[in-house]
Each structure stands twice: as structure tokens, then as C-alpha cells.
Amino acid sequence: MIEANLPAMFVVSYISVALLIVLAGVRVKQSAQPLATMGALVAALLSFVGWVVVQAHTDAGFPATRYGFGGWAPPIGIEFVLDGLSAFFLMVVNGVAAVVLWHSAGNIDKHLDAHPPTFYALATLFLLGLNGMILTGDLFNLYVFLEISSLSSYALIAIGSRQAPLAAFRYLILGTVGGTLYLIGVGFMYAMTGTLNMIDMMAIIPLIAQEPGVLVALLLMIIGIGVKAALFPLYGWLPESYTQTNSISSALIAPIGTKVAAYVMIRILLYVFGATELNAVWPLSDAIALLAGAGILFGSVMAILQKNLKRMLAFSSISQIGYILMGVALMNPLAFAGALFHVLNHALMKATLFMVSSHLERQEGSVDIRDFNDSYRVKYPWSMATFTLAAISMIGLPPMAGFFSKWMLALGTIEAGHWILFGVILSSSLLNAVYFFGILEKVYLRRSGQKEASKHPMNEVSWGMRLPALMLALTLLVFGFINAPILEVLQSLFPT
Amino acid sequence: METFLSNYAYAFTLAIMCVGLYGMFFKRNLVKKVIGLSIFQAAVIMFFVSLASKMGGTVPVKWDAVPIEMIDGYMNPLPHTLMLTAIVVGVATQGVAFGLLVNIWNRFKTLEEDDLHNAIMEDSDD
Amino acid sequence: MMVQSEFIPLLAVLVSLFAIPLIALSSNRPNLREAWTFIAALIKFGLVVSLIPGALQGETVGGALFEIAPGLPFELEADPLGVFFALIASGLWIFTSAYSIGYMRGNSEVKQTRFFAAFAMSLSSTIGVAFAGNLFTFIVFYEILTLSTYPLVVHKESDAAIQAARKYLTYTLTAGLLLVAGAALLYMETGTLDFEAGGLAALTTSTLSTGKLWVIFILMFIGVGVKAGVMPLHSWLPSAMAAPTPVSSLLHAVAVVKSGVFGVLRVSGFVFGFGVLQQIGADVLMMVLSAFTLTVASFLAFKQDNLKRRLAYSTVGHLSYIVLGVSLMTMSGVLGSVLHIAAHATMKITLFFCAGAIYVNLHKDSISQLDGAAKVMPWTFAAFTIGAMGLTGIPPINGFFSKWTLALGTIEAAQWIPLGLLILSGLMNAGYFFPIVARAYFKPGGQDLEGHGEANPWMVVPLVSTALLSVIFGLFPNAFVHILDLATVIMEQIFHSGGSL
């Protein structure tokens, strides 16, 4: 019973929580954050159950769990599909969101003194949209959920610095263009296949893959989703949005927002189309892989040039999403597993790093890298240790988890014979090292002429904030050691 | 010429889309950008509706004059229903957009790109 | 035996890792903190020593612990070569620990807790490098070694130290990355990264094109060559002398650079195999580079007035002796290399200890200031003289035997130019070391030496001990820990075994 209805439960639980937050918030403003955290936690547990169920089903040879809404059988009705891929993304999104929302408790007083219930209701709707995008088996329904999550994220981003609404507005314009282009692409596909159901379409596509119209539809969809995923060169909205928004939103949106767009890419490129159909007219996957590679280098170089920690992390996000999209576009199981593992790693790393940046923003009032000095080591020992762990993982040094996703991606590029991209992966690790060691050097070493660090008292944030960040960072270490079984499962998700 | 005539709906949609895109990316006033945005979305709605239309077809409500087996006699209802949703999404988007604009106005007292740019340059240090 | 022997390699790695939290927690009680270092060092050495009897039988202890990446086990195996290297590193750690205490306190350095913690971490990773059973595990520890030595290099936090540490990181991280790249290519071609004495069977039987083999070899050789200080990849090494002397002595004469040459041995003898390398002609490249390095480094050593920098260039030169020996790919050549790993370690650590003792005691780091210093620091300079004689290759110090074997190797391989360069460089070693000794003993000392005596016993005892060790191992190569026998077993494995480890 639970198994059969599991796909619908994510959305239902998020909607109920969102409503509950608004209703309860009228009376007790403080109830919003615990409620939202609980909502995400429930979803995280549900996704874990979903993952276990899917694994059991796969082992037993059953197909994916499909849930037709309103009792309408697909392809007439809209359906939710819970398979290995969606279960994996659900776990990442909901798990990280739960930790971020838990962490956000300590920051409410700084950013959201007026309306915590509104904020948390929006955050819950944002997660609802992402969950819907992951679960839906219908291309148009995906658009609807995409807009739900996007609209909430515009609002979330608008809460922040003086320029935040402007950054959100620019994101809104670009995001809506992206969403609309995706919608046109879906229209084309519908005109050609007569269906919007992904599984249904999968069966029809081999018959029409040679037509140029398919290429147009694909390009439109990829550009549309590419905007959301910040695929190079469609990243324009991202840096300012992440920089100007409040630190809760950036910690919530940065780790998981772009990942779900990457999920849609995977779903469409690899599941609905597949390598042969995708490249039937034009080598589309190569083009995406090269763009992703360019994004990796561009993001890394831009990150080095930044003076604001949040903007630096934003550009590093562009580079990291490049890894994921490249792994998808290489179209082999090794790179695919690397990309998925990087989704997990990057979600953990970016959440950690943005959390630490929120600690600094909270205590210091600014995240200007030029102001970093070795007093931070004394003032924020825990936060800085957390930052160091995540940074080492970002650079991709063993035994942190970040190394292993890059290792798999590197193997994937060799498998595909893409030597340029092989070089890109290697060199970007060094670029990552440049900007992260630059910060670590400032924090841990005393420059000549600076006053003694030990004069500063410890000024660390509360344990309620330190602990979630540290936990995520340690998870990276744990995943570094137990990556082999995870990667094996992820490899098996590659559609044959 | 014939291809144009048979696809003129697409060409028309494309033209409206370009108008919308022009408004979004080249107008310096933020409200005009939102207007461009809504034109752009309207184009897509028209595109979907034109997908569903059939020459000589009627509304998809069962009618005795057209037997149900005569598929070409009825228009395809699905795109219309999809577009109902899309219109709702569009309205919501504009709602959020105007909400943001109100916020921007309150903070900067202007909605012109150039003035905003100058204002940001003045108070930004990073 | 209390513990099951297959866990000894793991324990040997973990011992100093466990010491780190203890060191950090006893930050406010220096004596207790240093006690942890000592206890860890002694236990580690004991564990390694307990592996010697097995290694002498050619046995390999340990095995795969778990899968660290798909298809790649995390493997800690103590084969004879690994035991050999671990023995040197862990044995000399004991002396260095004593010496560091004297040095750090004598010099009243700051952040000593960080220093000792990072030191323990480096040792863990060095032992990990030694016991790594496959290339992937090797890389993991190799990178950790880079990271954990960074705080040591940068310890003084002066501008020079920060610059040096940046350079160090740039070189070593790039090298690590290339090593990873090489490993990835090799793994995709052969499906394995295991170390097999005599080379990967999968590689000797494969139909890999020469071009691809070259690419993989070059990537890996740069990867390990940077830490081995092979020119033109050496320049981090003299810069890294900005670190406190105990760091230079253990890490830059024993652990880090020896991990590099150890890596050269592993890559050429246990991954590619000498047959494959000779077939594609890679041995010539190694030989040219190392012969060039050992000559040029000796010339450069002449020019240095800073004592530590002169030692650094001498290290660059001597590391290339080892690489040269490997590149000969004959029995005596490789034997000489392995022996020189041990010999150079004891001798160079003595010299660095002396340099540190002079710096702490007399606050002098230039050679030109050392006039008459031997009169006030007789023990230190006696040890220095022994070390210098050993590196020059004068019997009966252990340096003579390793160099002798290396020379035999060149004759065996009929490589006359390297032989000539070996002899030339030996003379140059004499040329750049003996002036120091002569200055210290025979020139009259200045006013500033008055009131100074010998350095404190925490420093003098270790440096005299390592000097004595050099002599003892020169006279009795099999004393205490059977170095020569171990080396012979290693040779048998590399040259006569077709099977895996």
C-alpha cells in the first residue's frame, strides 16, 4: 500500500507542510523552521525508503514503481515514476535540504526577522517543485513543477541584500525564457510523437529520431534546461543570485537547485532519448560535453578572480555543474556514475561551504576574501576546519569523496577517448586548488605585520549551526571510503 | 511559398516570440521587460493552440453532427488544457515579477537599467 | 603474537594517526605531548621490525582491506621493499622526534602542537606509501603526504616560507595529478593497478602501442619524479628548506624525497617492469635525466653559501644516484639504488641535524660564518664529518658501499658515461663538503663563538647516533635489521619473479 503510493507521498507531504507552516505561522512564528525541517526530514526518510524499495524491486526484476494520478492510467493521465535514478536524486535533494533547513535555525534572527513563515513556506514549495520534477513521468508536468520551484526560488533569492530583488528579477527573466523554450521543445515533441509521457515517448523516438524536427526540439529543451542548470554559457543569472541573496537561501538553492536541472538533462538525454537517437542527426552529446568542459575551466578561472566568498562559490558551482553535465554527455557508465556521484558530492560540499560562509557573514558582516586573516582560525576553529575538509574535497584530493567522482569522470573521458576533456578535468583540479588554498593560506597563516591571532576570543556560531556543517563535511570523508558500493549501484543506473 | 502558407502559424508565432525577446533583452526599462516576457509566453501559447487546430474541425465536445470516430472533425483538446496551465504559470510569473519590481522601486526609486547600474556601482565595493 | 600479522601494516599506518588527537589534546602540556610522539614512534618501529623476519623470507604480509574505488582495493601489503622503506622512515622518526624536541624548544618555535601533529600525519602517510599494495593506494597516501607536509614547510609563516610552501604545493599537487592521470590511463588499458614484482603481467602481454606506453610512463615518471627531485622538476626542494630543520631532515632527506625515489622504483620495477621500459627505451630517458641532475646539482651545491641549501642541492644530486641506479636496470645498479636509499637517509639526516644544531646554538646558517665552529661544537662537527665523508663515498661508511655497488652496476650495464659522472660527482661531493669541515676545524674562530658550547643533548645525541649508524651499517651491513639481506631479497623479487607479490 505504502509502496504503491510512495511516489505521490513526497508532493503531498510537502504541500501539507507548506500549508501548515502558513497556518501555524499566523499564531506561532517560531513554528515555521521546525515544521519545514520536519517536512524535509520526512521527505528524506521517504526517499530512503524509496531507494530501498527500488533496489529490492530491481533485484527482484520488477519494473519501476509508477503512480497514475487520479486513477488515470498513463499515458492518458499524469504519472509519477520512482526508479533508481529518481530515488537517488530524491535522497540527495531532500537529505541535503533537511540539513540546510536544520542549520538555518541559527540564522533566522539575522535574515528573516519579519516573516519566517513566508520564507519557510516558500522553501517548502521550492522543494516541492524539485521533488515533482524528479518524480514526474510527464514532460509537461515537469514544466509545471519546474515553474513551481523556479517561482519560489525567485522569491527566496529576492530576500537578501539591497540588490537581491534585482538579481532575482534577472534570474526570473532568464529562467522564464529557459522554461518557455523548454515548453516549445515539448510542444514540438508532442507534435511529432503525440504523447507527453516519457516512457511512452521512449518507445516512439527510435522511429522518428532521424527527423530534423527532433533536433530542433532537443536543442530547445536543452537550452531551456541548460539555463536552469547553468550550463555554460547560460550561467548568467547564477553568480549574482547566489551572491546577493540571504545566506539561508544560498545554502538551500546552490547545492540542489542546479542538480535537479541536471537530473532533467539526464532524464531526457539518456533515458528518453539515449545515445544513438540523441546523436542521430547531429553529434549533440559531444557539443554538450565540450560546452560543459568550457564551463569547468571558465567557472574555475572566474572563481579565482573573485573577491567575495559567495560569488567565488557561485562560480565554482558553474564549474562543478560542468563536471556533472560532462559526465552525462559522455554517455558511458563510468562517466555517468562519476556524474551522479558528483551530484551527491557537490551537493554536500556546496551546502557545507555556503553554510560556513553564512557563519562568517553572520559574525563578520561580510564575506570579502580580502578581509580574511589568521584571526579567523582562532575565532572560528570549527567552521574553518569544516571549510578545510570541504575545500580539500572540492579540489579532489584523496581520500575525500570529491576525488573519486573526478576519478570516475576521468576514466569516463578515457573510455570515450575525449582527451581534451581528460585534460580539462586534470587542470581544473589545479585551478580549484588555487582558489581554495588561497583562502586556507589567509586563514591559517599569519602574514608579516599582522597582529597576534591569539588575542582574539573565540567567536564561533552556535552548535546548532556548527554541527550540521561539520556533519556534512565528515559525510564527505565517509563517502570517500565507502564510494565503491555506491558507485557500483550508480553505474547500474546507466540505461542500456 | 507553399511551405510558408502551410506553416504560416509557426512563422507568426516565431515573429511574436522575437518581439517578446526583443522587449526582454533590449528594452532598458524593467516593466517593459516584463511586457516582453508576457508577449513571449503568449507566443508559445499560440503555438500550442495552433498545434491542436485542424482545418474544419470543431470544439472537442461530443456533437451528433460529427461522429466520434471522425477524429479530424474535432480539435485536439490536450494542448488547450495544457495551455490553461501555462497561462496560470504565466500569470504567476508576472505576479512575482511585479512583486520584485515593487521591491526594486522601493529600494532604488528607479526601474531604468542604466540608473540601477549606476546606483549599484555607487554602493558596491566588491 | 598479539595481533594477527596481516594487520601489522595497517596498524603501522594507524599508530601515528591515533597519536594526532592525543597530541592535539595535550597541547598545553608539552612533555605529555612529546611523550605521545615518542610512544607512537617506538610502537611503529616495533611493528615494522616485527615484519623483517617474514620479509627476509620474501613473504608479503597484509592484503586488501576494502574496495576504495570500483575494482580497486585499498591494499596494505608489506613486501620486502615496503618493509625496507618503512624501516628507514620509522627508525629515523625516533631520532627525529628526539631531535625535534631539542630543536623546537631550543629555538622556541610557535605552534608546536600543529608541528608535531602534522609530523605524525606525514609519518602515517609515508608508511602508507611504503606499504601500499597497488598504485591507487600509493596515490592516496602520496597525496596525503603532500597535504600533511604543507603545514610543516610553511611552519615559520614568514613570507619566504609561504612562497616556498606555495611552490611546494604547486609542484607536488601537479605531480600527484599527473600520477593520477597516468594511473587512470593504465587502469583503463590493463584493468589493474596492482604492484607486481618484475612488472605487471597484464602489461608485458598486452598489445599497447609504444606511444601509449610512453605517455603513461612520462605521466607517472613526472608524478614520482617531482618528489624525487629529478631535474628539471627539482626546484621546490631547495626552496622548501625554509622549513624548520627537523622537517628538512626527516621529510626532505627521508620521507618525502624518498617516497619519490621509492615511487620511481615501484613504477619501474613493479608496474612497468624493466623489460618493458628497456623495450620502449624509457631507461635511456631516466638515465639521461638522472645523470644530468647529479652532475648539475653538484655544481649548484658549490655555489650555495647557505648550509641548508647546499645540503638541499646535495640531496637533489644523491636522489639522482638512486634514480640512475634504477635506470641501469641491472642487478647491481638497482641493488646500489636500494642501498643508497638507506645510506643517504642516515647520512643526510645527520648532516641536517648538524645544520639545525648549529643554527639553534650559534644562530648561523651560512657556511662562511662557520670558521672555528668545530672547537665549540666538537660532537656536532665530528658527526658532520662522518656524514660528509659518507656522502663523498669514503669507506668504511655506508655511503661507500652503496656508491661502489652503483658503480659496479654501471660497469655491468657497460654505461661508461654514467660511471664517469658518478666518479666526477663523488669528487665534487668532496669538493663542496670538505671546505666546510676544513673551515670549522682549522680556521680560527671569531669573537662571537665565545660563551657557546655544544648544543643541547636532545639534539647532540640523535645526530651522533645517526652518524654512528652510518658507520655501523658501513662496517656491518646486516647489523640489527639486516639491510643488505633485505635488499638482496628485493633484488631476487624484481629480477627473478614472474609471479605477483
Structure write-up:
The complex is a heterotrimer of chains A (496), B (126) and C (501). Chain A has 496 residues and is mainly α. Chain A has a domain at 341-496. Chain A has 21 helices and 2 strands. Chain A starts with a helix and ends with a helix. With 126 residues, chain B is mainly α. Helix content of chain B is 71%, strand content 0%. The model of chain B has no long low-confidence stretch (mean pLDDT 84). By secondary structure, chain C is mainly alpha-helical. Chain C has one domain. Chain C contains 21 helices and 2 strands. A two-stranded antiparallel sheet of chain C has the order 1-2. In chain C, a hairpin with a 2-residue loop joins strand 1 and strand 2 (72-78). Chain C is globular and about 70 Å long. Classes of the chains: A mainly alpha (496), B mainly alpha (126), C mainly alpha (501). Chains in contact: A-B, A-C.
How do the helices and strands line up, and which of them pair or pack?
The complex is a heterotrimer of chains A (496), B (126) and C (501).
Chain A: H1 2-27, H2 32-60, E1 65-68, E2 79-82, H3 84-104, H4 108-111, H5 116-135, H6 139-158, H7 164-193, H8 198-208, H9 212-229, H10 238-244, H11 247-273, H12 275-278, H13 284-305, H14 309-329, H15 333-364, H16 375-379, H17 381-395, H18 401-416, H19 419-444, H20 463-481, H21 483-492
Antiparallel strand pairs in A: 1-2
Helix pairs in contact in A: 1-2, 1-5, 2-3, 2-5, 3-5, 3-11, 3-15, 3-20, 5-6, 5-11, 6-7, 7-9, 7-10, 8-11, 9-11, 10-14, 11-14, 11-15, 13-14, 13-19, 14-15, 14-19, 15-17, 15-18, 15-20, 15-21, 17-19, 17-20, 18-19, 18-20
Chain B: H1 2-6, H2 8-26, H3 30-52, H4 77-108, H5 113-123
Helix pairs in contact in B: 2-3, 3-4
Chain C: H1 8-25, H2 30-50, H3 52-56, E1 61-69, E2 72-78, H4 80-106, H5 112-131, H6 135-153, H7 159-190, H8 201-204, H9 210-225, H10 236-239, H11 245-272, H12 274-280, H13 282-303, H14 307-328, H15 331-362, H16 373-376, H17 378-392, H18 398-412, H19 416-442, H20 457-475, H21 483-496
Antiparallel strand pairs in C: 1-2
Helix pairs in contact in C: 1-2, 1-5, 2-4, 4-5, 4-11, 4-15, 4-20, 5-6, 5-11, 6-7, 6-11, 7-9, 9-11, 11-14, 11-15, 13-14, 13-19, 14-15, 14-18, 14-19, 15-17, 15-18, 15-20, 15-21, 17-19, 17-20, 18-19, 18-20
Looking at this protein, list some descriptive labels:
heterotrimer, A: 496 residues, mainly alpha, two-stranded antiparallel sheet, 77% helix, C: 501 residues, 21 helices, 2 strands, globular
